[in-house]
UniProtKB/TrEMBL annotation:
Belongs to the binding-protein-dependent transport system permease family. The chain crosses the membrane at residues 57-79, 91-112, 118-138, 184-203, 215-236. PANTHER family: ABC TRANSPORTER PERMEASE PROTEIN HI_0355-RELATED (PTHR30151:SF20), ALKANE SULFONATE ABC TRANSPORTER-RELATED, MEMBRANE SUBUNIT (PTHR30151). This is ABC transporter permease subunit. GO terms for biological process: transmembrane transport. Its main location: membrane. One of its GO terms (cellular component) is plasma membrane. InterPro entries: MetI-like, MetI-like_sf. CDD domains: TM_PBP2. It comes from the Bacteria. It is a multi-pass membrane protein. Residues 53-233 form the ABC transmembrane type-1 domain. It comes from Alloyangia sp. H15. It is found in: Cell membrane.
Length: 245
């Protein structure tokens, strides 16, 4: 019990401040409900929250996987060719500078107003961090390893397969840790703006009819899901880095 309070005292303090603010100010529940009604809505409708959470997480996972693969492939292409590097790096910077919100109408016109556009939005959010971190890993090789491969007469393909790609794995795991929580939030944003299901749509639907317990309950579930995804990705990164070093 002591360990539980030691680890979660900040969250408990936030809940107490929230409850105290609502009680002392006398706010209407339409403006800000107390913590217990929000928790009661989450605990009282587990099937609804679990179904929408599963869909959002599945969409985020598909988008993050697509963004990781695309970002890694583009980084490898830029490493393999100076011409491609000169073309792809500026394009990547420009592409990353465009707000995701501005891309949603364009992608929706191209892909349709369905889950494929949500996946594409998540992939876009995961692409550039992967491109940057994998590109840095491709250039940050172990000292002397490249010279050793040169002495052995290894070609570019052999260097890529036996030296460069293995050396890049820790950077790829960093990209995974960074993009996973961002992917969840990007999926929520896309569902909020154009989705027909998932936590983002659930929040929009609840807010539109002033069901603030449901809206804040959705926000609570989103926060917990993002934190759990980040924790899992961070642990996976630590395991891989330990075995890779």
């Amino acid at each position: 019990m002591t360990r539980f309070f030691a680890r979660n005292w900040a969250v408990l303090l936030l809940l107490l401040l929230w409850q105290g603010w609502v009680s002392l100010s006398g706010l209407n529940s339409i403006v800000l409900p107390a913590p217990w009604p929000v928790l009661r809505d989450v605990l009282g409708n587990p099937a609804l929250y679990l179904a929408n959470t599963a869909q959002t997480l599945a969409t985020a996972a598909a988008g993050v996987a697509a963004g990781l693969v695309l970002g890694a492939l583009v980084a490898v292409a830029a490493w393999a060719s100076r011409l491609l590097s000169g073309m792809l790096t500026p394009l990547g910077l420009i592409f990353s500078s465009v707000p995701v919100v501005a891309l949603i109408p364009i992608l929706a016109r191209l892909l349709g107003y369905d889950i494929s556009t949500v996946v594409a939005i998540v992939a876009v959010s995961a692409f550039f961090p992967t491109f940057v971190f994998v590109g840095a890993g491709l250039r940050d090789l172990p000292r002397g390893a490249d010279d050793l491969f040169s002495v052995l007469g290894a070609g570019k393909a052999a260097r890529l397969r036996h030296l460069v790609l293995p050396a890049t794995v820790p950077n790829l795991m960093i990209a995974l840790r960074i993009t996973v929580p961002e992917g969840v939030l990007a999926a929520i944003l896309a569902e909020f703006l154009m989705g027909r299901s998932g936590l983002g749509f659930m929040f929009r639907e609840a807010a539109s009819r002033f069901a603030m317990e449901r809206a804040l309950g959705t926000s609570l579930v989103v926060t917990v899901a993002a934190v759990l995804c980040f924790t899992l990705a961070h642990r996976a990164e630590r395991v891989v880095r330990t075995r890779w070093s």
